[in-house]
Specification:
Length: about 400
């Protein structure tokens, strides 16, 4: 037993020895674990930080790319928007340049094809109310049906004559007869005015093609050939003959006598300084026909006075209209009353205005019209002529066009 005890360490020494052996092992193990844990913790935080930084960086890059893409899209949108409006503006300018500009032909003015490109802005201003971006049918343009002022100027003398002769006749015609004559002469005004414009454009086609303002006219631009225009003229005159056939024989003869005036008028601006006077003879022929249509073919003095009044009135309004192209007429060599009266236009037109009013008063007196005819005439026709002559600015092309009535 003692021997065995000597071989075995004592409890205290054993405990101490274990402590000596185990402690370093534990210490080294803890140190190793601690070091390993510290390294692992440091690696984890470093890796986590890298991951967080990468995520933030990717998010920032994504936002930056998105902002860049939006800027590019906005830039493209702005470019497309600007390009759209530039194209639209260019298209509108082209449309305006290609519009069919109204003529100064039959029942419009004396120098139908005389204006050069320098007058086109004023003429466009004058005719914008009648034109739009839609292209009209060339035959409608040829007959000037889209510009009815010429029809009115041709119809007014006819209707005045019908009304005056009906109201002063010893045996007043029936209301149905007056209405029928009004309808017939209105239709005749449309057809005769269209025929006059067609003749005018046939005569002036070569000159019109060289002038900026008139180059788009149907015949000058080639939209209607000369043979087709002649055929169209024949159709207009044929329909006009149907209207004329409804009237009495004497009135038919008067109607046929007006055709040479219609055909010859477009040439007058080349041979006389007073083409407006010749236009007055042509446009107011209906004052004679309207009277004979009611009286059964009898032409009387009141009708002649009414005709003279209409000729003077035409001299007023068409001379004013011719003033808007006076400079171009000088360059091209087209004659007009505006050129003839240039230094004293308003004074001379005042004389024609007095002649127009005097002719109307004389027609009423010769027809034994009611006394109310005279104050009514002076307050309407007199006021209009005074306004027309004394308010127009003859140096302003647009104002001359606006005062043309």
């Amino acid at each position: 037993m003692k021997r065995l005890r000597r071989l075995l360490p004592s409890s205290s020494s054993s405990s101490s020895s274990q402590n000596v052996v185990v402690a370093p092992f534990i210490t080294s193990s803890f140190s190793s674990w601690s070091s390993s844990s510290s390294q692992h913790h440091h690696h984890y935080h470093h890796h986590h930080h890298r991951q967080t930084h990468s995520v933030v960086e990717n998010a920032n890059n994504f936002d930056e790319r998105r902002r860049r893409r939006r800027r590019n899209e906005r830039r493209d949108d702005d470019a497309s928007y600007d390009d759209y409006w530039k194209k639209k503006k260019k298209k509108e300018v082209n449309n305006n340049n290609n519009k069919i500009v109204s003529s100064r032909g039959f029942a419009a003015s004396s120098s139908s094809s005389s204006s050069s490109s320098s007058s086109s802005p004023a003429v466009k201003n004058n005719n914008n109310n009648n034109n739009n971006n839609k292209e009209i049918n060339p035959y409608i343009a040829l007959a000037r049906l889209d510009k009815p002022i010429g029809i009115y100027l041709l119809a007014y003398p006819c209707l005045w004559s019908i009304l005056l002769s009906s109201s002063t006749a010893a045996i007043p015609p029936a209301t149905e007869e007056i209405a029928a004559m009004t309808a017939l002469f209105s239709a005749g005004a449309v057809l005769l005015r269209g025929a006059g414009c067609t003749v005018n454009d046939i005569w002036d086609r070569k000159v019109d093609a060289k002038v900026e303002r008139t180059k788009d006219r149907p015949i000058a631009s080639g939209k209607i050939t000369v043979p087709n225009a002649v055929a169209f003229l024949g159709a207009q005159l044929g329909l006009g003959s149907v209207v004329l056939y409804q009237l009495d024989f004497n009135t038919q003869i008067l109607g046929l006598m007006s055709l040479p005036l219609v055909v010859a008028y477009p040439l007058m601006k080349r041979v006389t300084n007073l083409p407006q006077l010749f236009l007055g003879f042509t446009l107011n022929w209906g004052a004679l026909m309207g009277w004979t249509a009611i009286t059964g073919g009898v032409l009387e003095a009141p009708a002649l006075a009414l005709y003279g009044s209409g000729v003077c009135w035409t001299m007023v309004y068409d001379t004013i209209y011719a003033h808007q192209d006076i400079d171009d007429d000088k360059k091209i060599g087209v004659k007009s009353s505006a050129r003839l009266f240039e230094n004293n236009t308003k004074g001379i037109l005042s004389t024609f205005g007095i002649g127009a009013i005097s002719g109307l008063l004389a027609s009423g007196y010769l027809a034994d019209a009611h006394w109310a005819f005279y104050p009514f005439l002076l307050s309407t026709a007199g006021t209009h002529l005074f306004w027309q002559i004394y308010t127009v600015d003859l140096k302003n092309r647009k104002d001359c066009g606006d005062n043309f009535e």
